[in-house]
Amino acid sequence: MIQRIFTLLLIAIASQMAAFADSHADYMPWSERALRWSDFAGTSPLGGSESFLKTTLELSASQQQANGKTLINLGAVARMWRGESYAPIDSSLRTRQRLRYHQLQFDILEVMRRRLQSDLNSGMTGLDADNSLKHYRNLYAEQLAAMDEETHRGQLDEKLQEWEYFTRKSLEEMGLPPTPTVTPSDWSYGLFIGLGGLFPTSTIKDNFNGFFTFTAGLTGGYKRLSLRAAIEYGQPKIRERNIFGKRDPKNRNLEESVNDYASMIGVQVNLGYSLIDTKRFALTPHFGMMWSSYGWNTTPLEWVPKDDDPTVEVPKPTGLVTKQNIKNFNWMAGLDFDIKVHHYVSNQPFLFGKREQLTSIVRITPYVAHAVYSKTAPDLQGYQIGFKVSYVGLARALTLK
User: Fold this and answer.
1) Which residues does 124 contact at the CB level (< 8 Å), separation at least 6?
2) Which site from 7, 220, 225, 343 is most exposed, i.e. has the minimal number of CB atoms within 10 Å?
């Protein structure tokens, strides 16, 4: 069941990443060139004969590496969506004046983009940038409505020329504003989820088998330092059914486990330092503490004569069930191998009203923990050797350089 949940999670993550990639593959930014009728690749939902242009104004970010640091250019983009823009097949309807009308729509959007970019250049980020984006989108809709009314949707050539003139004049006066550079914060936070295995040694192994584990946790960090807390769960098979060694004078068991499997819960808190941290890979040894608990149910035994042979006594459960557990708090150490598979800048602000750089990581973690369970006689002790394969989602807030 755990494996199935983890597999579905990975499929969902991959699907979202693929959908994001597909959604950005069918657009043309205003800066690429003037519109052509061949750019209109969509279909009309009503089978109409009138062309239409689908555009959008968005915030975008591009990343680059400089002197070992990630720099992100935060900008506004005016886009034409080819797959959602339509032109009729009839060439007589694809007139030069109609294409000028659509180009004017696109040019007005570029005016809004440059105004928005100027706001971003003033230091506007996060929620303020989103509010500014909404403002210019609304203003664009108002400008289109006014232009459509005056030009009769591009049919009045004189009015269309007036709108073209003033729009191009606005573009020339504003020029091309630069894009501000932002950089990810030194602080990071995130979460992780994964599967693994835990294999005890020595006398712990004599009582419990190795087992699969499910793990989840939170992580935070500053520069190369990281602090993470995780909870781990698994169900090891019980090898010794009388773990506490309760026996009568004849050395016969007086107790046995009701279950074939115990429940193991582990809580880990550790501090790490990245020896290597590049755009695609990180190597982080870490050291900390692990609290672990094995729990199961037992029932007392009484020895009674065998039905068909009274001279022989056999164990009989009394029916009383008692919850048992053994606990330990001890040191642990491990090594994280991080493969950074994807970097993405959020379209919406997250914590503290800021946009963030989101990093998807596949993390492979071998680790070892010492354990001494003193509740038993003699103590159960040894090492617990484990590994995890986790998906990590890490976020860093973006700040102006």
Assistant:
1) 132
2) 7
Say which residues have a Cβ less than 8 Å from residue 247's Cβ, sequence separation at least 6. Answer: 253, 254
Distances (CA, A) of 3 to 9, 163, 234, 270: 10, 61, 12, 26
Q: What is the pTM of this model?
A: 0.61
Query: For residue range 4-41, what is the model confidence (pLDDT) as tens digits?
Result: 444 444 444 444 444 444 444 588 999 888 999 999 98
Read off the pLDDT of each residue in 67-72 and give the average, rounded to a whole number. 60
For residues 197 and 79, give the distance between their C-alpha atoms in angstroms, rounded to a whole number. 48
Positive or negative, the CA dihedral 282, 283, 286, 291 is positive
Q: Taking a C-beta distance cutoff of 8 angstroms, is the pair 147, 107 a contact?
A: no
User: Are 87 and 54 contacting, i.e. CB atoms less than 8 angstroms apart?
Assistant: no
> Distance between CA 111 and CA 163 in Å, rounded?
13
Question: How far is residue 92 from each of residues 43, 50, 102, measured CA to CA in Å?
Answer: 17, 11, 16
Tell me 44's DSSP state. Answer: -
Residue 119 host element (H or E): helix 96-121
List CB contacts of 362: < 8 A, sequence separation 6 or more.
338, 339, 341, 389, 390, 391, 392
Give the whole-angstrom CA distance, residue 355 versus residue 63. 14
Torsion-angle region of 309 (φ positive above 0: left; ψ -120 to 50: alpha; else: beta): beta
Number of H helices, E strands in the chain: 5, 15
Residue 238 class from Cβ within 10 Å (0-12 exposed, 13-18 middle, 19+ buried)?
buried
Distance, CA of 1 to CA of 13 (rounded, Å) = 19
The contacts of residue 368 (CB under 8 Å, 6+ apart) are 332, 333, 334, 383, 384, 385, 386
In angstroms, the CA 251 to CA 192 distance is 48
CA torsion sign for 17, 22, 28, 32 is positive
Burial 337-376 (b: 16+ CB within 10 A, else e): ebebeebebbeebeeeebbbbbbbbbbebebebebebeeb
What is d(CA 387, CA 365) in angstroms, rounded to the nearest whole number? 5
The predicted-structure confidence for 291-323, as pLDDT tens digits, reads as follows 999 999 999 998 888 888 888 888 888 889 999
